[in-house]
Amino acid sequence: MSMYYMQRLAEAGLVASLGSIGDSYDNSLAETINGLYKTELIYRQGPWKNREAVELATLKWVDWFSNRRLLSSTGNIPPAEAEARFYTQQKSHVLAA
Questions:
Q1: Helical (H) or strand (E) element with 13
Q2: C-beta of residue 17 within 8 angstroms of C-beta of residue 26
Q3: Mean pLDDT rounded to a whole number for the chain
Q4: Which residue(s) pair with 71 in the sheet?
Q5: Residue 44 to residue 12: CA distance in whole angstroms
Q6: Considering only Cβ atoms within 10 Å of each terminal Cβ, which end of the chain, N or C, has fewer?
Q7: Mean pLDDT computed over 72-81
């Protein structure tokens, strides 16, 4: 799978944060998110009735994680708001230049 991932990144002109070609040694962020997902959603709210229930719960969890979760490192604002502020500041710096 990592070979396809590397190939797709190359096709898109992106540089991967990976070790040697085809080996994904630098995947700690993905593993951390997967661990959070499993701990906060899958294990706590299971057992699941069917795949559709897991899919719907996953969509809700991803929305919460990306848009409504409060982070102390960003001043207790959601990630989406922090990202919007960052890009607004970037645009104002470009205009000033």
A1: none
A2: yes
A3: 82
A4: 77
A5: 37
A6: C
A7: 91
- What dihedral angle (degrees, nearest 10) is formed by the CA atoms of 75, 80, 81, 82? 50
Q: Which residues contact 48 (CB under 8 A, 6 or more apart)?
A: 42, 54, 57
- DSSP label at 73? G
First to last CA, the chain: 44
Contacts of 24 (CB under 8 A, 6+ apart): 2, 5, 18
Full-model pTM = 0.61
**Interacting residues of 79 by C-beta distance below 8 A, sequence separation 6+:** 65, 66, 67, 69, 71
Residue with tokens 């997902």: 37
Query: Which residue is listed with tokens 């897991």?
Result: 54
User: Which position has the higher pLDDT, 6 or 80?
Assistant: 80
Please check the confidence at residue 28 and state whether its pLDDT lies above 60.
yes
